[in-house]
Amino acid sequence: MLYGMLFLSGGALFALALTWRPAIAPIPVPAPGSFPAGMVERGAVLARLGDCAVCHTAEGGRPLAGGRALATPFGTLYSDNLTPDPDTGIGTWSAEAFRRAMKDGVSRTGSHLYPALPYEHFTHVSDGDLDALYAFLMTRRAVRQKAPANRLIPPLGFRPLLAGWKMLFLHKGAIIVDPARSAEWNRGAYLVEGLGHCGGCHTPRNIAGGEVRSRAYAGGIAEGWRAPPLDRSNPAARGWTPDALYTYLRTGISPDHSAAAGPMGPVVESLSAVPEEDVRAIATYIASRMAGADAGSPSRPTPDDPVRAARLFPEGATLYAGACAGCHGPGAPMMGQGRPALGLASALRDEVPTSAIQAILRGIEPPVAGRGPKMPPFADSLTDAQVAAVLGYARSRYTDRPAWSKLDRAVARARKESAQP
To answer: Where is the Cytochrome c domain (predicted)?
Structure first.
């Protein structure tokens, strides 16, 4: 009995030692003028490349002040305040403390951070870039705003458990330069795998929430939307070239492919204001990952068989004629404004209907200065069965892909997810 108690106590102490991280002493809030202007400007670009404001700004809130609800399979997390407020933000954090948070997922006080902060990618960012990002954040206007308490499934609110998660899924180290590739490709690899954290959405995750590295960029889920594969399984009707990807990432639309929707909209908004060479590098790297995808020739017409589709989905044909054809039908005025044909839309061709469903339920907003395709939401005007009927009809009419199975259940599930948190 005594030996058992000693063994358990020793095991507990060992586990505690593995999870314990020391606090880093607070510092006085640095004066904004203490950071070189060039460093701050570089940090501003890096913040856009990392989409910092997207997750760290609550709806209708002050930029970077945190409090945005982030729905996860394990409950709801709320993003932290990244402004230099000394009490509720990072005003008393040193550059060392900031680097540790970004690379190791540990806060200044020593507590483990949840991987909603994608430190599994940020760990690959150079110290110089992290210091520039720190300089940018510390020169923003301080906002006093405390994030709400996280709402997680017990016992996941016990942060020391995250130490075990990191042992399994946090892989540190710099992005290795490939000498056989161009400087542009290597720059793209560094941005995509690091600050851009594209794999955070476009890679499937396991039951513990870790990225399945053996299936990198095979598609994932982001805020209830499907992040399509960025590998050879990409469902595009026409292969993505670096130029097409550049246009899409910069403007939110590629006439031969898709329009940005859902979480991709804010990404495009951020990338529209960074140096062109960085976006081209990202496009070059991602296009290389998708090289060899089974996509048709740009000159090949897309399918359009309304008779067959109406026979299979009569209700969908009626609904489509009333709600969709005015913008998406052949000869519709909207089609002359750079809107991709439905047969080219990746969401309609994907093996998973999630994003096509969400586009109907939530609509699409132009991500850059109000320019580009806009689609109203139909969540309040169409039932789950009607959404399923419209999508079944559209997929049958405009693509050569097999019908989605159990589409009505997928619509119900997507509608529930779109209402969270």
So the answer is: 38-141, 183-290, 311-398
